[in-house]
Amino acid sequence: MGAYILRRLLLVIPTLLGIMIINFALIQFVPGGPIEQIIARMEGGGDVFEGISGGGGEITGGGDSDYIGGRGLPADFIAELEAEFGFDKPPLERFLNMMWNYMRLDFGESYFRSISVFDLVMEKMPVSITLGLWSTLIAYLISIPLGIRKAIRDGTRFDTWTSAAIIVGYAIPGFLFAILLIVLFAGGSYYQIFPLRGLTSNNFEELSLVGKVLDYLWHIILPVTALTISSFATLTLLTKNSFLDEIKKQYVITAKAKGLGERQILYKHVFRNAMLIVISGFPALFVSVFFGGSLIIETLFSLDGLGRLGFEAAVARDYPVVFGTLFAFSLLGLIVGILTDLTYVLIDPRIDFEGRG
After folding, report:
1. pLDDT digits (tens, 9 = 90+) for 230-254
2. Both 246 and 194 in a single domain?
3. What is the CATH number of the domain that holds 136?
4. Are residues 123 and 71 in the same domain?
5. Is residue 324 a contact partner of residue 118, using CB atoms and an 8 Å limit?
6. Where is the signal peptide (predicted)?
7. For 171, phi and psi rounded to 5 degrees?
């Protein structure tokens, strides 16, 4: 097992490098870089895309520039901007410098916020940890027992009604469910039971330990519920179908013929086989919820997390934030994949990754 883990860790390097190369190459063809953003702001357009569509007035004059809206600006001013952002160097040199800095855990500084990317990510991390970990944990804690129960009672009234509820939950978009929760319970039109902003109250530091825990839970109930609804439905049906497939196999029939109890068959033999497909989806679910799936939820509940950070950085063409977070998130996603393989072995010790070579 140790050799397999070592191989997977070594494979992380070329995989991560490939991800960064592809994204860096794509960025070179995206219009509206950081220099265009600054020019658009100078022109009063607010955003480079408004200038492209005619929303901002273009500076004209005798000068020439390759940048949208940059005609008429002094050449030395454009050159100074290029040097400040590092665009005076060829793309290959910029990429190699960036990767060398990343190897030393230096993710650079945001173009527009005057703060290091590392500090910026650490500042937003508590929100994403809260939404990602709680949503994933609750989804698994509810979905697995419910899916098993539905598989055992397949075709019964319990299975029918729970399936109807699950399908309704799956059909409702997370952001729409979040709006419904806000209207009902956060002062929208009916009750104002839960807060609508932040992870904690203004007097959080003055509370006791129990008060801090309760205040934290009070703030996260609505956003975590809204974020869990769709993944909960998917996982429940996946667990049920996986257990149904295993229950119908020959080894289960043989175990029943030998006189083994239903619970022993279910949790000693069926569980370890059926859970493999459920566990295999954990990395994708975790990474999507942790990094990307919470953008709209964060916006609706006024939470400043990594979802909003990534979106705002992409819109503003804040490349250090975009690439720094992409590097960190990709690395974490690959490591989560390795941990998933270890979970396979924990659930079913018969799995031998070492012998796959």
Report:
1. 677 778 888 888 888 888 888 888 8
2. yes
3. 1.10.3720.10
4. no
5. yes
6. none
7. -75, -25
